[in-house]
Amino acid sequence: MSVLITVVVTILIFLIIIAIHEFGHFAAAKLLGMRVVEYAIGMGPAIFKKQKGETLYSVRAFPIGGYCSLDGEDKESNDERAFNKQAKWKRFIVLVSGALLNILLGFLVYIIVVCGAGEINTPVINEFANDTYIADSGLLPGDRIVKVNNTRINIYQDMNFVLSTIDENPIDVTVKRNGEKLTFKVKPSKRVETVNYYEDRAETLTSTNGIDQPVVVSEYKDGKTHPELDGQSETLERYIIGFSYTTKKVNLFSAVREAFYSSVYIVKLVLISLWGILTGKVSVNQLSGPVGIGGAVGNAIKFGWMSVLELVALITLNLGVFNLLPIPALDGGRIVFLAIEAVRRKQFPVEKEAMVNFVFLALLLVLAAYVMINDIFKLI
Questions:
Q1: How many angstroms separate the CA atoms of 291 and 289, rounded?
Q2: Which of 29, 138, 221, 245 would be a feasible disulfide site paired with 34, CB 3.0-4.6 Å?
Q3: Residue that wins the pLDDT comparison between 222 and 156
Q4: d(CA 55, CA 35)
Q5: Per-residue b/e over 177-214, b at no fewer than 16 CB within 10 Å?
Q6: In this predicted model, what pLDDT tens digit does every residue of 317-349 receive, in sequence order?
Q7: Smallest Cα–Cα separation from 260: which of 365, 73, 143, 113?
């Protein structure tokens, strides 16, 4: 039953996110007076369709996508309201609207998630961790961190990004204290966590700068024994600054602010990850497709529907950013063709653009197939 729920929820998430993306194109085209041929949810043969005015609205058999078909989008049309006959600024608005609506959806979902949490972590120092160097830096509890090296800190998650990049070298931490900005040099502390697994429990041994902390014993959350884990262990080494965060109650203003910067944080992570893949620093095997996302949805369901909503925000923001990449077949690639047209002062032939988009779409489908197969092997 849990597998069925995971499959259904995953399909609904994809349908909603893609339907909203295509609705962005649809709404912008309608508002700008363009002729929309069809707005479809799903792919394949139609199981429901209704012609309303000049537009066909349909629900199709396979819940794996959707589309908004515009007259003059993929082939020449002489209709004055066709996409290919419109001014460049109008075509740009239509092309970018799908991604922008996805990003807006992520922002709105984050507002719900933050409000549901009731309180949020803030980048304000609460107390120092034992055996770290931070106590000797000049920082004090109550300081609000606003910058670490060259990274601006707006929310608690920004600190997570910084912590993933630091090493043993000292860092500059800028804080606000009594309305004044102060900068201190802080030496990161090395933390080593070793988890030893037994049939009925896990024991975590933590050391900071070589000094051992008390062992933490925890039983498995499902309340069952796990003989297959007995004798296994894993070790994580990382560098920390060494403090706990303060929390505060959420109000509407703080929820909107937190949601905005959380969205910015995810967009930044997506761009950094994609750049890592292009430069070879991140393996393509780290990409996840529908199967991998389905696994993530299943895990999120175990932690509650707020976790599912947070995953929805993550996915829709990913989709929005990815679609704006300057790759043919994506909205960003079509925007590149508009830019070329603006430089040449001559419209790019619609059929040739469609052919380039088709070739890159085929390449993206091959990549998607590879990612899906890789996801299946990960699950196995």
A1: 6
A2: 29
A3: 156
A4: 8
A5: eeeeeeebebbbbebebebbbbeeebeebbebbeeeee
A6: 989 998 998 888 889 988 998 888 888 888 877
A7: 113
Interatomic CA distance for residues 284 and 280, integer angstroms: 8
Residue with tokens 């909203």: 20
Q: Looking up tokens 């729920």, which residue turns up?
A: 5
d(CA 376, CA 294): 11
Pairing verdict, β 201-208 and 216-219 = antiparallel
Angle at 196 between CA 193 and CA 201, to 5 degrees: 120
The Cβ of residue 303 has, within 10 Å, a number of other Cβ atoms equal to 11
Q: Is 32 helix (H, G, I), strand (E, B) or coil?
A: coil
Q: Which of 178, 376, 170 is nearest to 289 (CA)?
A: 376
pLDDT in tens, 49-73: 999 989 999 999 888 788 899 998 8
Identify which of 157, 165, 162 has the alpha carbon closest to the alpha carbon of residue 265. 157
Q: What is the mean pLDDT of residues 355-379?
A: 74
Q: Say how many CA atoms lie within 13 Å of 138 toward its Cβ.
A: 11
Retrieve residue 9's tokens: 């929820």
Distance, first Cα to last Cα, the chain: 19
What kind and span of H or E run contains 141?
none
| Both tokens assigned to 361 | 């779409």
Q: Tell me the C-alpha distance between 304 and 300, whole Å.
A: 7
How far apart, in whole angstroms, are the C-alpha atoms of residue 366 and residue 360? 10
pLDDT for 286-306, tens place per residue? 666 666 777 777 778 877 888
Q: What is the 3-state secondary structure (H, E, C) of 171-226?
A: EEEEEEECCEEEEEEECCEEEEEEEEECCCEEEEEEEECCEECCCEEEECCCCCCC
